Amino acid sequence: MPQHAGGSLSDALFSADSVRRIDQYVIEHQGVDGFELMQSAARAAFRRLVMRWPGMEPLLVLCGAGNNGGDGYLIAANAVRHGFTVHCVAVAPTEKLSGDARKAWQKAVADGVEVLELADIGESELEGLFETATLIVDAMLGTGVSGAPREPFAAVIAQCNRSGLPVLAVDLPSGLNATTGAAKGEAVQAAMTVTFIGRKAGLYTGQGAAVCGDVVFEALNVSVGVADSGESPIARLRHWPSVRDWLPVRPANAHKGRFGHVLIVAGDRGFGGAGLLAAEAAARSGAGLVSLATRPEHMTAALARCPSVMVHGLTHGSELPALLDAASVVVCGPGLGQGAWGQQMLQQVVESGKPRVLDADALNLLSSRVAMPVSNQILTPHPGEAARLLNCLVPEIEADRMAAANKLQSLYGGVILLKGAGTIIASGADTVDVAGGSNPGMATGGMGDVLSGITGALYAQMKDSPLHAAVLGAVVHLEAACRASADKGYLGLIPTDVIEALPRVFREAEPVSGGSEEGE
Fold first, then answer.
1. What is the DSSP letter of 9?
2. In whole angstroms, what is the distance from residue 28 CA to residue 39 CA?
3. Is 320 helix (H, G, I), strand (E, B) or coil?
4. What phi and psi, each to the nearest 5 degrees, are found at residue 194?
5. Cβ pair 48, 60 in contact under 8 A
6. Nearest 5 degrees, angle CA 106-CA 109-CA 111?
7. Are 507 and 481 spatial neighbours (Cβ–Cβ below 8 Å)?
8. CA–CA dist 434, 436 (Å, integer)
9. Alpha-carbon gap, residue 52 to 85, rounded angstroms
10. Closest to 188 in 3D by CA, of 151, 148, 161
11. Whole-angstrom Cα distance, residue 204 to residue 420?
12. What angle do CA 387, 173, 155 make, to 5 degrees?
């Protein structure tokens, strides 16, 4: 089983401060000239621009005052040398440039780039530049900015987004916090972000997942310096190809008893579908046995929908302990309700001490109880549920999703799976995991129920590794949704589409030990 603390530089996510320190270390201790490094970044970004948008011109390059602006000036110089028509606007006055950024501006001018000072051109002239451009290069604000963009940057960012033009963001979209993924004001909506030296954690979660577009990482041949700098990542980026070998090997003589018995406790009156979705998702995710404890009136529909699930109709919490005794993992919460029935069910689940996945109304009920850290549980809140658990507001959660997940973990123990674009998984380790990617089609009721079923089934199979079950659950859930939306689009995506796509995902990672002999 892979260790959480492990990983390579390719999946390491750093804070903005760490990347700046890495950059400085490379310059001071690796014999790399800072201006040469800036030129390498500009060449890499321009190469990506040409690959993505061949022949698109004129370019509108927007430059700030720091090294991010320096990158922009050198990208403009590269474009001019390759025959592109370029309009370059100094959003920050060039008189404020210093160091390598000033050298970059001087080189751009020497190479034939006409740099227009924003302060010297009228509003109508700037509007005309946006109207004639076919592609924007955003090199305005870098990793040093954490608050809302000030003027004139705020106005230019808004104009970028109104233009509808594709944007290449240099290192990160202007207005985005490179560490947290939050944006306190409007951030540039990029089609592609080319980032350098080290992957910035904020590009992969929260608003970062919404505004960065396709994120391309360019190491600029300084990986040795990154490793030697002593800087530690704050997160690890997880995608399906990098985690699919986490699934336990199934021996050729496998039987259902080896892969766990998942009990889904879900579905008060009017919410029977939530339990059904969780149960079917668990059955499709490799659990040996799946049981569903729900209201009696939901039994017929459950058996018709998924006959492999053992369905039990319960009217009172006192009926649950016998089912809990037989289970190896409990998933509690989907459609549970917050009435007497749901409260009784959660109470029995908590008292059983069984490994558990708590979701939805189980979390809402949990928020009114005294926090008791438990090591063998996975909590799967969305930002609203996380806010209730922490007694704060949703914007506070979204302001720093990684910090919120870590705080939840310190209060409740176990593993926290904070849902949303760039799902965060925290286990109390020095780094969190980030499920890379997003899918707007998942913004519909029932998707969380599917996730809880998947995660419960993986927890049952991975037994003593709730962290790996949670990470794998989040990644598999997203991957299945992406496979389903590739066929059906985003607007029409429903939770059962994701469940139906699960076998296609898991088929790519079916490690089976032993062999068989072909016969006639």
1. G
2. 17
3. coil
4. -105, 115
5. no
6. 110
7. no
8. 6
9. 17
10. 161
11. 11
12. 95
CA distance 334 to 380: 11
Instruction: Retrieve residue 412's tokens.
Output: 């409740």
DSSP output for 189-243: --SEEEEESSEEGGGGSTHHHHHS-EEEEE-TT-HHHHHHT-PPPSEEEE-HHHH
Return the half-sphere exposure (C-beta side, CA atoms, 13 A cut-off) of residue 321.
Answer: 5
Cβ-based neighbour number of residue 32 at 10 Å? 18
Cα(453)–Cα(378) distance, integer angstroms = 12
What tokens appear for 415 in the block?
A: 């593993």
Does residue 54 have a cis peptide bond before it, meaning omega lies within 30 degrees of 0? no
Cα 288 from Cα 364, distance rounded (Å) = 29
Q: Which of 421, 487, 492, 478 is nearest to 447 (CA)?
A: 478
pTM above 0.90, yes or no: yes
Residue corresponding to tokens 């509007």: 127
Length of the chain: 520
- Those residues with Cβ within 8 angstroms of residue 405's Cβ, 6 or more apart along the chain or in another chain: 386, 416, 418, 424, 425, 426, 432
Residue for token pair 């039987």: 255
Indicate the SS3 state at residue 76: helix
Residue by residue, pLDDT tens for the chain (520 residues) are 333 344 566 899 999 999 999 999 999 988 889 999 999 999 999 999 999 999 899 999 999 999 999 999 999 999 999 999 999 999 999 999 999 999 999 999 999 999 999 999 988 899 999 999 999 999 999 998 888 999 999 999 999 999 999 999 999 999 999 999 999 999 999 999 999 999 999 999 999 999 999 999 999 988 887 888 999 999 999 999 999 999 988 888 999 999 999 999 999 999 999 999 999 999 999 999 999 999 999 999 999 999 999 999 999 999 999 999 999 999 999 999 999 999 999 999 999 999 999 999 999 999 999 888 999 999 999 999 999 999 999 999 999 999 999 999 999 999 999 999 999 999 999 999 999 999 999 999 999 999 999 999 999 999 889 999 999 999 999 999 999 999 999 999 999 999 999 999 999 987 556 554 444 3
